[in-house]
UniProtKB/TrEMBL annotation:
Name of the protein in its database record: MerR family transcriptional regulator
SUPFAM superfamilies in the record: Antibiotic binding domain of TipA-like multidrug resistance regulators, Putative DNA-binding domain
Molecular-function GO term, any one: DNA binding
Domain HTH merR-type: 1-69
Length: 246
């Protein structure tokens, strides 16, 4: 199968398949005389394994290490996927149960305590803060946190809406070249928004874009707006930073 056919079959972008090839995660078995990638049934079976691992939150580097092991057993991996997905389903069912009870509470059909409503939620810490401190130092992170803490809830909500709007705009452009004027204008809006929260040099902005791809947590959240968006943003941010550094 050609790369476009595989992308449509698996529900992912051509750019994502190219990225998998670039990092040594999934190489197509052959190419046409014109140089186009061709995927075999064996390649598709491996892609299915990769997507199962991704759904479970495994980082791409870890997936590559697992599937490239000489002793990698596909059936054993399937059993693991099955076990972990059942656990994930159980967690989701608990969340759905809480949501359904909350809906009944809102209708006056049952009564929930405040503790019941927020059971299982924990937003007391930022899971990316420590990594950000290690990459860019305490000063940049502290300045960003200080600015956010000074914002009212309304301002923070507005900021979130602006971020989502830019994500959606970039998602619409993700199948185009990240170097186009339209893509660079949109990623420039992202750069300006981030700098309203704290200073990002072009180099730090480029490094952040790379983290969007290297850290599966970022990739998973960003790609909710469109498969392959994290990779597209990385490339657009690198292009933007390089232009500003010239």
């Amino acid at each position: 199968m050609m790369v476009k056919e595989v992308a449509e079959l698996a529900g992912i972008s051509v750019r994502t398949l190219h990225h998998y090839d670039e990092i040594g995660l999934l190489h197509p078995s052959g190419t046409t005389e014109a140089g186009y990638r061709v995927y075999s049934d064996e390649d598709l079976a491996l892609l299915q394994q990769i997507l199962f691992f991704r759904e479970l939150g495994f980082p791409l580097k870890q997936i590559r290490d697992i599937v490239s092991r000489p002793d990698f057993d596909r059936r054993e991996a399937m059993e693991l996927h099955h076990k972990l997905l059942l656990e994930k389903r159980a967690r989701l069912e608990r969340m759905i149960d809480t949501l359904e009870k909350t809906m009944k509470h809102e209708k006056g059909e049952i009564r929930m305590t405040n503790q019941d409503k927020f059971a299982g939620f924990d937003f007391s810490s930022n899971p990316y803060e420590q990594e950000a401190r290690e990459r860019w130092g305490d000063k940049a992170v502290d300045e960003s946190n200080e600015r956010l803490n000074k914002m009212s809830k309304e301002e923070q909500t507005q900021m979130g809406e602006e971020m989502n709007a830019i994500y959606r705009k970039l998602a619409e452009l993700r199948h185009e070249s990240p170097a186009t004027d339209e893509a660079q204008q949109a990623i420039g809006e992202w750069y300006q928004l981030l700098n309203r929260m704290g200073y990002y040099s072009p180099e730090a902005f480029k490094g952040l874009g790379q983290m969007y791809v290297d850290d599966e947590r970022f990739t998973r959240n960003i790609d909710k707006f469109g498969e392959g968006l994290a990779v597209f943003m990385r490339d657009a941010m690198a292009e933007y930073a390089d232009r500003r550094s010239q």
